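User: I'm new to structure prediction. If I give you an amino acid sequence, what do you actually give back? Let's try with this one:
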Amino acid sequence: MERSLENLYIWQESRHIVKEIYQIMDQNKDWGFKDQIQRAAVSIMNNIAEGFDSGSDAKFINFLNIAKGSCSEVRSMLYLCEDLGFCNSDTRIELQNSVKRIVAGIVKLIGTIQNENNQ
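Assistant: Good question. You get back a string of structure tokens that encode the predicted 3D arrangement of the chain. For your 119 residues, that looks like this:
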């Protein structure tokens, strides 16, 4: 199979989260909160993409770690989303589980890249 960004599960899942976050925030008038959670979600997707085409495994791993940090930010902000009434607990849990799957995928991909480099 061709090596493609679009085939990466973690990128596909992050794209889904961006869409969900934008839909949840669509009618939100708290511009600061809205901007922060949307930027964090987009950061996951874009750092995976930028790292994928960065030209080196070391750079890719660095971008993946940045994406992982953005995952933590989104996970944290989703609690506020629920606390402030922007989403319900089911939506929060569903999105946080998606974010956790992305983190697990990032960790696995970093391990794979490191193992390939150590052979």
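You can read the tokens as a compact description of the fold. Here is one thing that stands out. The chain has four helices and no strands.
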